[in-house]
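queue> pop job 88
queue> type: inverse folding (structure -> sequence)
queue> payload:
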């Protein structure tokens, strides 16, 4: 199976980050989960790590695009999925529905 990395840019998303990381990690399609903290000042980094993600921290807020590009530069995966850090109701089945057509 091809390596698939999910990149989640996040800025102060402590309320939802664990609920996004959890279902992503439950999916058998995903190899890595990278949360790129875009200068977060809340508990986003800690909660993302506790949920099982690899967390990359930008020291200052550069914007979503910068966080996405930074995350992309950190992976060698042949397939990358970008997800928002504030998604609600995400399930492993949603991840599979996103990835299957690409595979």
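queue> result:
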């Amino acid at each position: 199976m091809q390596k698939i990395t999910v990149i989640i840019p996040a800025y102060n998303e402590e309320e939802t980050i664990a609920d996004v990381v959890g279902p992503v990690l439950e999916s058998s399609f995903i190899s890595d989960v990278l949360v790129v903290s875009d200068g977060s000042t809340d508990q986003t980094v800690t909660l993302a790590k506790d949920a099982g993600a690899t967390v990359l921290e930008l020291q200052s807020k550069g914007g979503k695009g910068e966080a996405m590009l930074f995350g992309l530069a950190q992976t060698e995966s042949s397939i990358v999925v970008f997800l928002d850090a504030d998604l609600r109701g995400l399930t492993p089945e949603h991840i599979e529905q996103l990835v299957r057509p690409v595979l």
